[in-house]
Amino acid sequence: MKRFRRFSALLFGVVAPLLLLSVASNPKHAKQDSHYFSYAGTYTAKTSSQGIYAYRFDAETGKLDSIGVAAETTAPSFLAVHPSGKFLYAVNEVGDFHGEKSGAVSAFAVDRETGKLALLNQVSSRGAGPCHISLDKTGKYVLVANYDGGSVAVFPLLDDGRLGKASAFVQHHGSSVNKERQEGPHAHYIQVSEDNRYAFAVDLGLDEVLTYRFDGRTGALTPNDPPFAKIKAGSGPRHLAFSADRKLVYVVNELGSTVTAFSYQAERGAFREIGTVSTLPKDFSGENDTAEIAVHSSGKFLYASNRGHDSIAVFAIDSAKGTLTPTAYVSTGGKTPRNFAIDPTGEYLLAANQNSDGIVVFRIDRKTGGLTATGQEVKVPAPVCIVFVAAN
């Protein structure tokens, strides 16, 4: 018996440290991985906003605690985080940048202890009204969509996180049937494919998703063959989201209040339309514009925001057919949900209500995709975009 106890003690002395080491190194078990900084990009014109706001987000409880202004900057409407978590990038919807009729792109260093942001540099976005920003899969390039200018641009990143001179610029041309909103091109979104070979630009003014071949070595953009996927005239496509297996693409249409589903051929960078569904309940007859779209990490559910109905539309995804079935329309508890974000754990959805100056937290039901308000709400002037960075 004594021999057994000595062996047990010896075994525990060896195994326990190994278990502790495993917990500390495994993201699924590390406690600090439930703690994030959440950043909110805002509109500063005609509001009290001072720029980008930061919060501490606890993914175990869904609690948001305000840190305050992370960086003072003008109209940082949309944000993107570097894969390393060390840098954050923002488009600035300014009308004049150093005498040029262009917006700006800003680079910030992230303090992973305090959540504060330090400006590294700022460059011209090469077009008016930049409204979306993303990074390529290598973290070496930033891609920007200029809404008013109807153009897209690519910027290389230097080793210290600063933005370099544009490596690519493409001006879109054309128009569509809505004479007020589609009188010319309005690039609203750009992102690269999972394999980093293509860049997809969603243009509201053209009713098109344009596809470019992306060169990860030089940052160049060249038209693909086929060069675009056409969407029903007057739909006004805004953003897109890939399915979890990357075989499907969903485009939210701002002017039509719809979502169009496509199958995606990764080898050719091509889209084939499956069908379109409304984001609104059948009994709604008021004015509405959609805004954001996202697929849950489980691949089972899709979410789209309605501005007017002021809700998040919830859809079940048929992964075999790619079709969508509406399951719920959940009030965002505020006005004009311009953006929402699903937290990195997939447990919560945070809705940014632009015209009621707040962010509302919802818990996601992993079985149904349904949303339930947690009671957590923070005030922030004119929130436009929400992103997450893991805290140290």
Q: What would you say this structure looks like, in words?
A:
The chain has 392 residues and is mainly beta. The protein contains one helix and 28 strands. The strands form seven sheets. A four-stranded antiparallel sheet has the order 3-2-1-28, with no helix packed on it. A four-stranded antiparallel sheet has the order 4-5-6-7, with no helix packed on it. The protein has a four-stranded antiparallel sheet with strand order 8-9-10-11, with no helix packed on it. Strand 9 (141-146) and strand 10 (151-156) form a beta hairpin. The longest helix is centred in the first third of the chain and has 24 residues, at 2-25.
Which key terms come to mind for this protein?
392 residues, mainly beta, Methylamine Dehydrogenase, Chain H, 4-stranded antiparallel sheet, 6% helix, globular
Task: Give the topology.
Elements: H1 2-25, E1 35-42, E2 51-58, E3 63-72, E4 76-81, E5 87-92, E6 104-110, E7 117-124, E8 130-135, E9 141-146, E10 151-156, E11 168-171, E12 187-192, E13 198-203, E14 208-214, E15 221-230, E16 237-242, E17 248-253, E18 258-265, E19 270-278, E20 289-295, E21 301-307, E22 311-317, E23 324-331, E24 337-342, E25 348-353, E26 358-364, E27 371-379, E28 383-390
Antiparallel strand pairs: 1-2, 1-28, 2-3, 4-5, 5-6, 6-7, 8-9, 9-10, 10-11, 12-13, 13-14, 14-15, 16-17, 17-18, 18-19, 20-21, 21-22, 22-23, 24-25, 25-26, 26-27
